[in-house]
Amino acid sequence: MQPFYITTPIYYVNAKPHLGHAYTTIIADALRRFHMLLGKKTYFLTGTDEHGDKIVQAAEKNGCSPQEYVDNISSTFRDLWPSMGIQYDHFVRTTDESHKKCVQAMLQKVYDSGDIYFGEYGGHYCYGCERFYTEKELENGLCPQHQVKPEYIAEKNYFFRMSKYQDWLKQYILDNPDFIRPERYRNEVLSLLDSGALEDLCISRPKSRLSWGVELPFDTDYVCYVWFDALLNYVSALDWPDGEKFSTFWPGVQHLVAKDILKPHAVFWPTMLKAAGLEPYNNLNVHGYWLVRDTKMSKSLGNVVEPLEVAKSYGLSAFRYFLLREMHFGSDASFSEESLVARLNADLANDLGNLFSRVLSMTGKYFDGVVPAPAEYTEADEEIQTLAAEACRNYVRLFERVRFSNALESLWELVRALNKYVDSSAPWALHKAGDTERLGTVLYVLLECMRKVAVNLWPVMPEAAEAMLAQLQLPFDVACVRLQDEAEAWGHLPSGGTVQVSSSLFPRVDWDKEKQRIEAEAAATASKSAEKPVQEKNADSEPEGYAEFEDFQKVELRVGTVLCVENHPKADKLYRVEVDLGEQKPRQIIAGLKEFFAPEDLQGKQVVIVANLKPRKLRGLESQGMILALRTEDGMELLTSSNAVPNGTKAS
Ligand code: MSP
Fold first, then answer.
1. Which listed site, 94, 207, 243, 368, has its alpha carbon 20 to 30 Å from 132?
2. Is 99 a catalytic residue?
C-alpha cells in the first residue's frame, strides 16, 4: 500500500496562529489519521516560513534580531498544535540548516540545467506580498491583495524559466483531473494558463535590499526569493536530495492549502519540480476561507478567532467536528460561536451523545452492562446493517476525496437512523414483555453500529472517539482498524464484554448563557484596549503596530489659536476652550488640560487640533475637535508650530 504524505502550508511567523491556520492543520491531522486507519504508513509535515522583508520589519519593531524573532513566533505555532490534538511528524523551519542546504542544492541543480538565468527586470513590487506584479495583475494600479500602490523597481536578478513549462503544465492538469481539487480551482488554474504567456519567475533578491534569506549558491550577492525557498520545504523535510524518506513518502504526497496561495502551489511548484526532474505531487487540495461575520478575519476589525480559546470553551472534539462539518471543502464558510453551539447541540449532544447514553444505560439496566449475544436478525436489523454498510462506504469514499462535510453527513444518516431504530424497536417494551432474546439482538445491533461510528470518527475527533470506544470497553488500537473493511465488518464487538455507563459525552450548551459570557468578555477586552496607547495593526498579514498610510491620511490636523479658556461648568478637570481655526466660527473644544495648564498658559497660543474628529458631548458640552499635547514625565506640553502660521494651516 502506498504511503501517505500530507503537508500544510508553512505559516508566516509575522502573526500568531488563528482559526484559519488551525483549520488547515486540523484537516491535515484528520486526513493523516484517516489514512493511518486505512493501514498506510503516513507522514505529516507542517512548519513555519521565516525569511523575507516582513520578518525583518517585524523583528525591528519588536527590538530583536530576525533570528530571535522567528524562534519566538515559530514556537507558538509548534506548541499550539499538540493542544489541538494535532500530531505531526516533522516541523520544518525555513531557517533550518538542512532546509537551506536543500534550497541551495535545488537552485544549483536548476541553474546547472540552464533553467535559471540572469537578467534585468522592472516590475511593480508589493512589499506586503514580497513579489512583483505585472501591470495587468494590478487593480486600478494597486496591489490586489493589499490595495496599496506598489513601488516600481528595476534591477538585475535571476529568473527561473517557468514559461518553458507552461504547455507541459496545462497538459498535465488536463491528463490528471484530480491534480488540483476541487474542480473550481483546477478550472481557475487552467484559465490562468490559457489567459496568456506565463512569465519567467524572478527568484532572487539583491542582498543590498534584503539579506534575510538563503544565499544563492552561484552568486553571493543575492538571496533566494521567499516563495522559491518556502515551497522547497515539502522536499527538504524529506531530506531531498538524498535520503530514504524522500523515496518512501514523495510518491504519496498531497498538499493542503487555502485559495490564497493557489498560484504558487499550482503553477510555480509543479514547474519547479519538473525542472528539477522530480515527480509532481499527487493532489493539491484547496479549501476556501473562514470568514467571521462575512468578512475576512483581521486584527483591526477585532474578529480574529483564537482557536485555543474556542476549543477550551466548547471542547476540542466539538471544535474539530464543527470545522470539518461546517465548511464544504473548497467554499468559504462563516465561523460563529452561535453556529458552533447549534451544531454541538444538534449533532453531538442530541444525535450522537443521546444515542450513546440511551443505549449504554439500557445495556446497564437490562443486562447488567454485559454486551448481549444477538439471536436471529429481523428485517429491521438487516436494514440497519445495510444502512451502516452504506454509510461506512460513503464515509471512506468521501473522506478520501477531502469532502469532509459530506462524509460526516453520511455518517450522521446512520446515527439518526439508529436513534429511530431505538424508538421503533422500543427496548423498554421488549423488556417489559420479557422478550430478552429480541431485546439482546436490538441492543447488540445498536452497540455494534456505535462501535462503527466511533472508529470512523477517530480521525475527526480522536479524544471523543476514544472515549466512546472506552465506554464500549474496546481499547483503541490503530493497527487493528481498517476503515475500508468497516462496511463489510460485523460482529467485532464481542458479546459477553461489559460496557461502561459514564458521564455524557457532549453536554448541551445553553446558548443564551454563552452569549452573555461572550458579551461580558468582549466588553472587558474593549475597555482594556481603550486604555492601550498604541493603535493596533491593520491587516492580519502585516506586522503589528503600523497604520496604513490611507488611515493616517484620514486624520486632519490643523493649527488654530486659542481664543478663550473657561472652566467646564460640570467637570472639575475640563476646560471649555474656543479655538480659531480660520473658519467662520471658532470651534468649541472640551479639553482635559486643567490639571496642567492655567487659562493664561493657553490663551493666545497656537495649538494643533484634530479637526475632523467626530463631535461628541463631554459632560453636556459638545467638543468639536481635540487639542494635541505631549505627555511628559512631569506634566504636559502643548504641540505647536515653531513659527506663527495662519490659522487653519494643515499638518502633513
Ligand atoms: N508562508 C506562506 C505559505 C508557504 S507554503 C510553501 C503563507 N503563509 S500564511 O501564514 O499566510 O498561511 C496561509 C495559509 O493559512 C492559507 O493557505 C490557509 O491554509 C491558512 N489560512 C489563513 N487564513 C485563513 C482563513 N481565514 N481561512 C482558512 N484558512 C486560511 O501563505
1. 94
2. no
Question: Which of 100, 255, 299, 568 is an active site residue?
Answer: 299
Answer whether 21 contacts ligand 1 (Cβ < 6 A).
yes
C-alpha count within 13 angstroms, C-beta hemisphere, residue 52: 24
What distance in Å separates the CA atoms of residue 430 and residue 630, rounded to the nearest whole number?
83
The question of whether 299 is a catalytic residue gets the answer yes
Higher pLDDT, 411 or 242: 411
Ligand 1 pocket residue status of 255, Cβ below 6 Å? no
Q: Cα(405) to centroid of ligand 1, in Å?
A: 21
Question: Ligand 1: which of 8, 13, 24 to mutate, judged by most atoms within 8 Å of the beta carbon?
Answer: 24
**CB 139, CB 150: distance < 8 Å:** no
Q: What is the mean pLDDT of the chain?
A: 92
pLDDT over threshold 50, residue 139? yes
The neighbouring-strand residues paired with 635 are 632
DSSP state of 348: I
Q: What is the strand order of the sheet 151-160 is part of? A: 131-133, 116-126, 151-160, 201-202
The answer for residues whose C-beta is within 8 angstroms of residue 452's C-beta and 6 or more apart is 388, 392, 414, 486, 489
List 35, 51, 129, 274, catalytic entry: 129
Interhelix angle 436-457/404-425, nearest 10 degrees: 170
Residue type, 494: P
- Is 201 or 144 the better-scoring residue by pLDDT? 201
Residue 533 has pLDDT above 60, yes or no: no
Q: Which residues contact 368 (CB under 8 A, 6 or more apart)?
A: none
Does residue 261 have its Cβ closer than 6 Å to ligand 1?
yes
Angle at 353 between CA 351 and CA 354, to 5 degrees: 65
Report pLDDT digits (tens) over 278-321: 999 999 999 999 999 888 887 777 889 999 999 999 999 999 99
Question: Is 90 one of the catalytic residues?
Answer: no
**Could you identify the atom of ligand 1 that is nearest to the CA of residue 291?**
26
Is 126 part of the annotated catalytic residue set?
yes
The burial of 611, by beta-carbon neighbours within 10 Å (0-12 exposed, 13-18 middle, 19 or more buried), is given as buried
Which pTM was predicted?
Answer: 0.81
Q: Is 407 exposed, middle or buried (0-12, 13-18, 19+ CB in 10 A)?
A: buried
pLDDT of res. 534: 43
Where in 111-150 does DSSP place strands (E)?
116-126, 131-133
Q: How confident is the model at residue 570, as a pLDDT?
A: 81
Q: Whose CA is nearest to atom 18 of ligand 1?
A: 258
Residue 35, CB-side half-sphere exposure with 13 Å CA sphere: 22
- Which atom of ligand 1 lies closest to the CA of 290? 27
Nearest to 369 by CA among 449, 472, 452: 472
Which residue, by CA, sits nearest to atom 9 of ligand 1? Answer: 11
Q: Quick one: average pLDDT of 366-376? A: 97
Q: 152: phi > 0 → left, psi -120 to 50 → alpha, else beta; which?
A: beta
Using a 6 Å cutoff on CB, does residue 297 contact ligand 1?
yes
> What separation in Å is there between the alpha carbon of 374 and the centre of ligand 1?
51
Residue minimizing CA distance to atom 29 of ligand 1? 20
